[in-house]
């Protein structure tokens, strides 16, 4: 999982895009794994991507305790597997999972200067909800949210 995160960050840099992480988020990833919030997308035993679903994100969404949202973090797809729909699959799975948990929103943030990534999230049905500058960062993050609906039969 950490390899996918590192490779995704390196791929962003090779493309001249601002990286999604200042450094490999080892501590955050380890804590998320320990809490059972991290997921891995695999095919035939190969790890294609990873992401986390967390209940709160007070730094980016100060109202996260009060709103029925799930927060998507550290979505990363192996650069050699990008463009195959794996990221869209992961986001849709996250939205279905949020709905099954009785949540109404899926939220995330992305480096605002990475317009390619921000446009991709908008194509996936997310709405931009303004920028936030996180402590220690020099680039603002764009906040996004997408309404989710409860699947039939759940």
Strand order of the largest sheet: 1-2-3-4-6-5
Q: Low-confidence runs (pLDDT<50, min 5 residues)?
A: none
Percent strand equals 25-35%
* Average pLDDT level: 84
Structural class determined from secondary elements:
alpha+beta
Biggest sheet record:
6 strands, mixed
Helical fraction equals 25-40%
Number of strands: 6
Query: What's the total helix number?
Result: 4
What is the alpha-carbon Rg in Å? 15 Å
In short:
The chain has 154 residues and is α+β, with helices and mostly antiparallel strands.
List the SSEs and their pairings.
Elements: H1 2-14, H2 26-34, E1 38-43, E2 46-54, E3 69-77, H3 86-100, E4 105-111, H4 115-123, E5 127-132, E6 141-147
Parallel strand pairs: 3-4
Antiparallel strand pairs: 1-2, 2-3, 4-6, 5-6
Overview of the structural elements:
Strands 1-2-3-4-6-5 form a 6-stranded mixed sheet. The protein is built from 4 helices and 6 strands. It is an alpha+beta fold. A hairpin with a 2-residue loop joins β1 (38-43) and β2. Helix content is 30%, strand content 29%. It has helices at 2-14, 26-34, 86-100, 115-123; strands spanning 38-43, 46-54, 69-77, 105-111, 127-132, 141-147.
Descriptive keywords:
30% helix; alpha+beta; 154 residues; six-stranded mixed beta sheet
